[in-house]
Every structure is written in C-alpha cells, then in structure tokens.
Design goal:
about 170 residues, two-stranded antiparallel ribbon, 3 helices
C-alpha cells in the first residue's frame, strides 16, 4: 500500500490518495504530488516502519529529497501510528513473527498477536494498512528535522536472506 496525504496549516486533510502497488511507489508518489491542490508546503513526513524495509526506504528517501529541494523540514511517523495511534497494532516481521505495539508500551517481536490487535497480512479481509491520512492528529507532536539530519529508525533488523552456504575467502598464489 502506498499513500499520500496533504494537510493544511490547521492539520486538516486537504488531499489524500492511496493504492496497492507491487512496484514503482516512488513514481506513483511523484505523480500524485503533481495533483496536490496549490498549497504552501511547510514539511514532509514519511512512514519510518516497521514494515517493508524497501518501502520505508523509498518513502524516507523521497521525503529527504523533496524537503531538501524546498528547504523545509521533514519528520517520521511510525507505521503503528499510521494504522492506529491508540490500539494494539501488529505488523508482519518475518515468516512467523510480528512486531507488536500495545498502547503505552514499547514494540516487541512476538509469534502471537492479541485477537483485538489491528494488523495487516496480504489477502486478509480484516487488514488495516498504514495510511498517510491518519497522520493529521500526530503532526504537532512530531520531531521536525532538516533533510540531512532525518534518518530512519530500525526497530528490528531487516529480514534479508542469508546465503545457504557461507562465503569463504579464496587465496591464490
């Protein structure tokens, strides 16, 4: 899921769009930025995860570039808060693990999720995905930074596959 939202100076939603895409999220975002109503842009916000490692990097990179080009600040919002800032939220991590955030508690990685948790999983009809339009109430509490200082927060290491056979150094004479 890729999404974009534009808020006015009172943090009211001025424009929103979202779409399920297999690839080219950055192109979609740039096309939709051209559709944004003519409003002054004072900052950019990105989903900083947890969730799709590459998806978060695309959003963060685009936010950094756009903020630097316009000389405005940027900030990050947790994917948990973009699903629900007040409910238990579970986000798929690895094959059998979930990143779980219970209200008022730090995130933990677990194989089990509570029945009341909001979550997403491909093909599940009860899925709730992170959505940019949910960021409005969070804007005043964000930590705004220059584009150069804005970095992702890796709450869990990326699930990059390991080689089935370790690489060994070959020495030739």
């Amino acid at each position: 899921m890729v999404s974009l939202a534009v808020f006015d100076e009172d943090h009211q939603l001025a424009y929103s769009a979202e779409e399920f895409l297999a690839k080219n999220a950055s192109g979609w975002l740039l096309r939709h930025l051209d559709l944004v109503p003519n409003q002054p842009i004072t900052g950019f916000v990105s989903d900083i995860g947890p969730g799709s490692f590459i998806g978060a990097r695309v959003g963060i990179t685009l936010v950094k570039v756009m903020a630097e080009m316009r000389q405005v600040f940027c900030a990050g919002v947790s994917a948990f808060d973009l699903i629900s800032p007040t409910d238990a939220v579970a986000i798929p991590n690895r094959k059998s693990d979930w990143c779980l955030r219970l209200p008022g508690q730090p995130m933990k990685v677990t194989p089990d999720i509570p029945e009341t948790a909001k979550f997403y999983r491909t093909g599940n009809p009860a899925s709730v995905y992170p959505a940019a339009y949910r960021a409005g109430p969070l804007l005043s509490g964000l930590s705004w930074q220059s584009a150069l200082d804005f970095l992702p927060i890796n709450e869990v290491p990326p699930s990059i596959s390991q080689p089935s056979q370790p690489f060994t150094a070959r020495v030739t004479a």
